[in-house]
Design a protein that fits this description.
Radius of gyration: 28 Å
CATH superfamily of the largest domain: von Willebrand factor, type A domain
Shape: extended
Structural class: alpha/beta
Strand order of the largest sheet: 7-6-5-8-9-10
CATH topology of the largest domain: Rossmann fold
């Protein structure tokens, strides 16, 4: 076998191992999805398009051979419960050693891959957009390669790959290296064809009760759930905007950081948030052109039955005719009565545009997301 052939086989094996590694990573994420969803520190590792997910050391499956020095269970006489080798301490009180311990491996996963895993594991249907889904725009999509074209469309990677294959086949490039100079026949250029593409936009309006009964633990649950909701919806739409509304006795629009860190001590008037949400939609997001997703999180306390009636009226007459779905998440707290969810369930029992969920703790986030996004609306 020539050096060029050996080098090509080595490259092919590396590509195969990398593919197998990615498959193992995805399998590990799926297996522990609930743990990863509930892990708030995961959000801190988010980049522009990727997330670093910590997981135990991953080894590609292969045979490993020991020192075969005899003795021990399986190699001679042994008793039940006897350690497999010397030096193992079940109580963790062994002497200090020079060997390193197990380290967590951080794996970069794209938000697109993360959304796909989430959708597959929760069996989330693809969303059927409304509004601008009927309007198509023409885009030039690069769909293939050709041998001629302008320098601006030269596909550098494919050109180099073509030249590298030729050099390896000729024996001029191997493990020791060599020089790769593309010939004219190696040049590859991107080719395109116009395609009609549906244009769909969406806006998420997050509303949250920030009265004294909503503590740091409750806000952390909302922050984590919002991250995963964003991840899924961004995989479904070309363009997403996000707005944030906080309320106690009054409502106001804030930025993302303030939304998750503000804490007030006043009463709770939920209708103020619904009224402001409705004004934001009327001012900036015509329902005929936008897919609208309001999410409201609270511990279920409202200051009076009269304000609850006002909320139900706003939902029925103003918000529901404009939105894809209206989602209410009730975060359990020591001081919250949880009555507001009961009122919504009673009033909109037969209306599939209103979806409610109860989130008792971080482990309940996955079930809440499935309830919210599982309708495909």
């Amino acid at each position: 076998m020539s050096q060029g052939t050996e080098w090509a086989a080595m490259v092919q094996k590396i590509d195969l191992d990398h593919t197998r590694f990615r498959a193992i990573v995805k399998g590990a994420i799926r297996k522990d999805l609930r743990k990863h969803v509930a892990n708030g520190s995961l959000i801190a590792r988010r980049g522009a398009e990727t997330v670093s997910i910590p997981m135990p050391q991953i080894h590609l499956p292969r045979f490993r051979f020991g020192s075969n020095q005899g003795g021990g269970v399986g190699q001679g006489e042994g008793q039940v419960g006897e350690p497999l080798g010397p030096g193992e301490q079940a109580d963790g009180k062994g002497e200090a050693g020079e060997q390193g311990g197990e380290h967590a491996l951080e794996v970069e996963v794209s938000l697109e891959e993360l959304a796909k895993i989430l959708g597959e594991e929760l069996a989330l249907p693809r969303i059927q957009p409304k509004g601008k889904r009927q309007i198509t725009t023409q885009v030039n999509r690069y769909t293939g390669l050709r041998r001629v074209g302008p320098a601006s469309l030269r596909h550098v990677k494919r050109t180099f790959k073509r030249a590298l294959k030729r050099e390896i086949a000729s024996g001029r490039f191997g493990p020791a290296g060599g020089i790769v100079v593309p010939y004219p026949d190696d040049m590859r250029y991107r080719s395109w064809e116009p395609k009609l593409q549906p244009q769909s936009n969406a806006v998420i309006v997050y509303m949250m009760d920030v009265s004294g009964s909503m503590g740091d633990e409750q806000k952390e649950i909302v922050r984590i759930e919002a991250f995963w909701i964003d991840t899924w919806l961004k995989s479904q739409y070309r363009h997403i905007e996000t707005r944030y509304v906080v309320h106690d006795a009054e409502a106001k629009e804030v930025d993302e950081h303030t939304f998750f860190h503000l804490r007030e001590s006043g009463g709770t008037k939920i209708s103020s948030a619904y009224d402001l949400c409705n004004k934001i939609i009327d001012r900036d997001y015509p329902p005929a052109e936008w897919n609208i997703y309001p999410f409201h999180f609270s511990d279920g306390d409202n200051w009076s039955g009269g304000d609850t009636s006002r909320c139900l009226e706003l939902l029925k007459d103003q918000l529901l005719p404009k939105v894809n779905v209206f989602c209410y998440g009730q975060v359990r707290s020591t001081y919250g009565s949880g009555q507001f969810k009961n009122d919504l369930d009673s009033s909109f029992r037969d209306d599939d545009r209103v979806i409610t969920s109860e989130v008792p703790d971080k482990d309940g986030i996955v079930d809440s997301i499935k309830q919210f996004l599982g309708t495909g609306r």
